[in-house]
Amino acid sequence: MPIARTALTATLAIALAACGGGDGGGTTAAPASSGGSSGGTTTQGGCSLAERQQFVLDVMNEWYLFPNLLDTTVDPANFNDVQSYIDALVAPARAQSRDKFFSFITSIEEENRLINSGSNAGFGIRLAYDTNANRVFILEAFENAPAFPAGMDRGSELLQIGSQTVSSLMASGGPGAVVDALGPTDPGVARQLSFTDASGATVTATITKAEFSLDPISDRYGVEILNDGTADVGYINLRTFIVQDAGPQLRDAFQQFQTQGIDKVILDLRYNGGGLVSVAELLGDLMAEGRQGQVFSNTVLRESKSSENETRLFAQQPEAIGVTKLAIIGRRGTASASELVTNSFIPFLGADLALIGENTSGKPVGQFGFDRTACDDRLRAVTFQTTNADDEGEYFTGLASVVDTTCRAEDDFDTPLGDAGEASISVALDFMAGRTCTPIITEQPQGSQTAQSVGGMRMMEPERPTAAQREMPGLF
Q1: Where are the beta strands (DSSP E) in 255-376?
Q2: One domain for residues 237 and 195
Q3: Whole-prediction pTM
Q4: Is residue 227 located within the same domain as residue 204?
Q5: What are phi and psi of 41, to 5 degrees?
Q6: Regarding beta strands 325-330 and 353-357, do their DSSP bridges make them parallel or antiparallel, or are they unpaired?
Q7: Whole-angstrom distance, CA of residue 107 vs CA of residue 443
């Protein structure tokens, strides 16, 4: 779709990368382009709340995927911020699970830095909380961030923040109290934290938040060659689709698989909230040797924008392999581009594709980004739905409802990711070897945002997440 193909109204400017399919992009460019990697042209007008709200209304009226589920009768004067107004506009769509907080306002600068270099600020950990025992655990630690060298890693328990115990914070104010105690995601914010390390010992350290780059594939466990008892299996733990560097890292991983003759792959997307459609399309290509020219996905906009509909075909990649069996490790935090890739392989693999873990978020829609550069506003509005080669894409209740084979598995966060003995990976290897499993019970994901959950726990999320936190649930 050419960049200049669509003329926009004078109030609009569109950025350059689509997020979605779940939430993520490829040659699925938006009308003049789609939102994410670089800014649009400068727009006219001021930055008062009323003007920003009017910008939102203009965009939604023209582009929103579900125009009949948009409540344009809400009075913008009743809202003190832009996001609350957006939430009210799309409330009818949310009631039908069509827009579960998928439309939002974010910072152009912040999102562009995230996409281009993975740049964000924080401790560099993913947190989840026990819904019954008032406990908070670390599910993952980023190697180049402040918390990891201090001793925090997968399986650590957060015990105390300053003088307040986590249990007392949870008891008095729930997860929101813990989020508040951890402070804003600004470089230089320091907190004294007590936590357990890998040996189970209690450690107390003052850790200062800093800028760090999100690494899409960990150097420790991101790519492994495992064995299911019958053959070697390629394993990839992809943390996010939102960082452009995911592309070269995926190429390197599949080059290893190609060299070793591997055609069975486990994609660990259990915490992957999505990102760029372009990265999802590349991942599809890398698993589709021999399928070049066949349909990877269809991008479908509202009827008035149907001229922007697009079909994306598998493309040739030098590192590609022909995957014959594919296991997707997913949980309710698995959304967007993660679900797009899975759905796109259903017509080709059938029962040789399995969802391992639990049901996913249910986001077969994606967003274009609409920029109001003078205000550093990027409106991520749900504007398209993706379907596979069989025109199937109605998994708003999660992928477990459309995948032929599902296998229930726990998230064994006491065991490292990439370890063949970890519960979900072990079940995935059983599937690869043809061993039986217990199916996932299909149910509608519950809760706010994308209903992130991990077994009996839920991902820790702030009420107003940063650009990185939207794409990487539980990130602090």
Answers
A1: 264-268, 295-301, 310-313, 325-330, 353-357, 365-372
A2: no
A3: 0.90
A4: no
A5: -75, 160
A6: parallel
A7: 34
Nearest residue to 246 (alpha-carbon basis) of 271, 292, 214? 214
Q: Which residue has the tokens 């813990």?
A: 178
193 vs 161: CA distance, rounded Å:
5
Domain assignment present for residue 245? The answer is: yes
CA 218 to mean position of chain CA atoms:
16
Residue with tokens 């077994």: 455
Residue 206's CB is within 10 A of a number of other CB atoms, namely 10
How far out from the chain centre does Cα 467 lie?
A: 11
| 3-class secondary structure, 409 | coil
Written as one letter, the residue type at 269 is L
Residue 279: give its domain's CATH number: 3.90.226.10
| pLDDT 10s digits, 92-112 | 999 999 999 999 999 999 999
Domains in the chain, number: 2
Could you tell me where the DSSP H helices lie in 128-276?
Answer: 166-182, 246-259
- Compute the C-alpha angle 19/23/27, nearest 5°: 40
Contact 155, 414 (CB under 8 A): yes
325-330/264-268 β-pairing: parallel
CB 363 within 8 A of CB 93: no
Return the CATH number at 136: 2.30.42.10
Supply the range of the domain harboring residue 292: 223-363+390-445
d(CA 243, CA 470): 13
Contact present, 75 and 402 (Cβ < 8 Å):
no
User: 304: which 2 tokens?
Assistant: 């008035």
Q: Return contacts of 304-309, CB within 8 angstroms, 24+ apart.
A: 304/67, 305/31, 305/63, 305/383, 307/6, 308/1, 308/5, 308/6, 308/30, 308/31
Which range of 4-8, 177-181, 241-245, 450-454 scores highest in mean pLDDT? It is 177-181
Distance CA 175, CA 215 (A): 26
